[in-house]
Amino acid sequence: MGILRTLLALSVVLDHLGGGATNQLVGGRLAVQLFYVISGFLISYVLTGTDRYQGATGHFYANRLLRLFPVYLAVAALTLAAHAAGDGSFFRLYDDLPLSARLFLILSNLFIVGQDWLMFFGIEHSSLLFTGSFAHSDVPLYQGLLVPQAWTLGVEITFYLVAPFVLRSPRRLLALLAASLALRAVLIATGIGLSDPWTYRFFPAELALFLAGALSHQILLPRWQALTRRWPRLPELGVAILAAYCCAHFFIGLNHNLRDALAVLLFAALLPLAFLFQARYRLDKAIGELSYPIYICHALVILFFGWLLDGASARQPALFDALVLTGCIGFAALLNALIADPVERLRVRLRAGGREDLSVDPRPAASQPAASRQRRVNPIRRAP
User: Which helix (H) or strand (E) holds 278?
Assistant: First the structure.
């Protein structure tokens, strides 16, 4: 999964660079939705494929917060410092806002929760109102976010809140999946669901993507594991297919909605193979550990190079894009070394408070050490 997650993170970076970089890999919007599918798979794994959080929902929430917040807060603080050293336009935006909007922005910048809701609000007649779209606003509220792309974490956190009460019950899972798909169909039929922010920022409709990933874990993973015992190279083939798709997405001559639906179905179908692949290759795990910090830091890196190389994005866009991509990867590695790795040691201690991991060893039985065939292990070095 590591290679795929990092390809998706780079898709978002390229999309935000704009210009000729926009339609590269799978694009920003679809990358976010595929992240939702992967998140559903991994959260289903830790909640239903292990005994780690049985009767310890609070530990699950604490673990998720430790995964998301330290890197986010570090990048947010650095971004705030960059704005303070800049021309002050970021702070002047707050001067034009009513008190309610300022509080909304300050709290959502601190706690992440609410950044996705912000996309449905605007300022009209000096009041904060539900406008249905961030585009319908006298002042663009999203410009007051320190980490603009972190609104997706707000969607993720909402899923984390409901996941322990949904994923362990097949009946609830299927009922919510049907309800989410029906809601999306109604939104599309009425025309509301055809435009941003309703296309991929509205959690009730996006919930279906998380649940599709959860079903991929609960239904397809055991079947792919059985097939892998017969054909051991299936995980490599599955990852090759998904990586090739990421590179070829915009060359597929289909209506963009059908093409995106194909991508979601393909990922949901083959994610178990990517999961098994990650268990075999440490390099894949290491690459995957860069995906979250790349995603969180890329707006700051773009801001930095835009300041450092004033006008270079217009004069030499290919060079500017290459510098940003390289900077994102390097900065992500630094964030992991200085922040994520020390926090991970705390997360390991927190997870140790749970019971024995009962997940299935993803390797074929014949390749498992004899001493481990009677137990089950966690194939993820840095747990999701």
Answer: helix 256-280
Give the tokens for residue 144: 């007051």
| DSSP string across 37-97 | HHHHHHHHHHHHSSSTTTT-HHHHHHHHHHHHHHHHHHHHHHHHHHHHHTTSHHHHHHHTS
Query: Alpha-carbon distance 293 to 311, whole Å?
Result: 26
> Which class for 133: exposed (0-12), middle (13-18), buried (19 or more C-beta within 10 A)?
middle
* Length of the chain in terms of residues written: 384
**Residue that is written with structure tokens 């919007």 in the block:** 29
In this structure, the number of other CB atoms found within 10 A of the CB of residue 83 comes to: 15
Q: What six digits make up the tokens of 146? A: 């320190």
Q: If you write DSSP's letter for every residue of 214-272 in order, what string do you get?
A: HHIIIIIHHHHHHHHHHSTTHHHHHHHHHHHHHHHGGGS-S-HHHHHHHHHHHHHHHHH
3-state secondary structure at position 127: strand
- Spatial CA neighbour of 266 closest among 2, 27, 4, 6: 4
C-beta of residue 328 within 8 angstroms of C-beta of residue 302: no
Q: Considering only CA atoms, which of 289, 245, 249, 291 is closest in space to residue 270?
A: 245
Over residues 238-296, the pLDDT tens digits come to 999 999 999 999 999 898 889 999 999 999 999 999 999 999 999 999 999 999 999 99
Q: What torsion do the CA atoms of 74, 114, 66, 375 make, to the nearest 10 degrees?
A: -140
What's the pLDDT score for residue 126?
Answer: 92
**Confidence (pTM):** 0.89
Q: How confident is the model at residue 338 (pLDDT cuts 50, 70, 90)?
A: very high
Q: Which residue has the tokens 């984390």?
A: 160
DSSP state of 360: P
Instruction: State how far the alpha carbon of 354 is from the alpha carbons of 215, 349, 358, in Å.
Output: 24, 9, 11
Dist CA 130 CA 149 (whole Å): 21
Residue 141 contacts residue 121 (beta carbons within 8 Å): yes
Q: What H or E segment, with its residue span, contains residue 123?
A: strand 121-124
